[in-house]
Specification:
It is a single chain. By secondary structure, the protein is of the alpha+beta class. The chain has two domains: 114 residues, D-amino Acid Aminotransferase, Chain A, domain 1 (2-Layer Sandwich); 158 residues, D-amino Acid Aminotransferase, Chain A, domain 2. Helix content is 27%, strand content 29%. It has seven helices and 16 strands. Strands 8, 9, 10, 11, 12, 13, 14, 15 and 16 form a nine-stranded mixed β-sheet that branches. A hairpin with a 2-residue loop joins strand 11 and strand 12. It is globular and about 55 Å long.
């Protein structure tokens, strides 16, 4: 990925209903969302100039805000139109879109009542998260000491900025250990997900994935589960113990940014990119690249 800082690029960003020059899309240092984590976001892929499942993402965007007790001041239809225009103005062919909403600067106190809500949409070219060998042969994971919280201690159904602190700490830890990403357990000690992608295991030709009750039930996850069922692959959504990784034939991750990303090793235990991973990756690519994909 390019090393150009994200605050020093050309182009425009949609901010609170209007397009502004990229470098002028700012928020105040005393914004409530910055100090107290009152922000939600989405990630939307663009394929051949077409956003994929953008309306589903914006519906989740609204739902995430409700989980954090605020409302996004733009409709799903309005946000979808703003995204389309952002992609057009930026000339994005294969890229990524980041909608974000946060509480404003009317007050700095733990309570967020009475704060305004700001929304921005930015888009940039980004073909793949991982390139070369990592993209095709798979990435390496390191099991983190950090865990996904219980649903009664955090808004786990929301794509909330505050929850990604755990992912940042785990990812930094994994990269320091020489791995590409981290694998997180949930508060009970079962397998959960990576720092920003859902986890799948293949064993005996069947697909196994953790129940999404302590982490985000990703839109890509849901799409891949539907594709698997259409292809006649048996699917099991269940509690999975960490020790079961040793019995898996294949491991892969899914996410808007990651798409279907093979894993070649977890804590040094190696895997091959097998038939099920390859089949689902091909099916997902065909779906996202099809003329009717939205």
């Amino acid at each position: 990925m390019t090393s150009v800082p994200f605050d020093d690029r050309d182009g425009v960003i949609w901010l609170d209903g209007a397009f502004v020059p990229w470098r002028d899309a700012r928020l105040h240092v005393l914004s409530h969302g910055l100090h107290y984590g009152g922000g939600v976001f989405e990630g939307i892929r663009v394929y051949d100039g077409r956003p994929f499942k953008s309306a589903e993402h914006f519906r989740r965007f609204h739902a995430s805000a409700r989980e954090l007790n605020f409302a996004v001041p733009h409709s799903v239809t309005g946000l979808d139109a703003a995204l389309e225009e952002t992609v057009r103005r930026q000339g994005i062919a294969d890229g990524y879109v980041r909608p974000v909403a946060w509480r404003g600067s009317e007050q700095i106190a733990v309570s967020g009542a009475g704060t305004s809500v700001h929304v921005a949409i930015a888009a940039w070219e980004w073909p793949h998260v991982f390139s070369g060998d990592a993209h095709s042969r798979g990435i390496t994971l390191h099991t983190s000491r950090w865990r996904r919280p219980s649903p009664d201690t955090a808004p786990v159904r929301a794509k909330a900025a505050s929850l990604y602190t755990i992912g940042t700490l785990a990812r930094d830890e994994a990269e320091a250990a020489g791995c590409d990403d981290a694998l997180l357990l949930d508060h009970r000690g079962h397998l959960a997900e990576a720092t920003g992608a859902n986890l799948f295991l293949v064993a005996g030709g069947s697909l196994h994935t953790p129940i999404a009750d302590t982490f985000l039930d990703g839109i890509t996850r849901q799409t891949v589960l539907a594709l698997a069922r259409d292809l006649g692959i048996t699917v099991h959504e269940r509690r999975i113990r960490p020790g079961e990784l040793r019995d898996a034939d294949e491991v892969f991750l899914t996410g808007t940014a990651y798409e279907v990303q093979p894993v070649r090793a977890v804590d040094g235990h190696a895997y091959e990119v097998g038939d099920v991973t390859a089949m689902l990756s091909k099916a997902y690519t065909e779906l996202t690249r099809s003329a009717g994909a939205r």
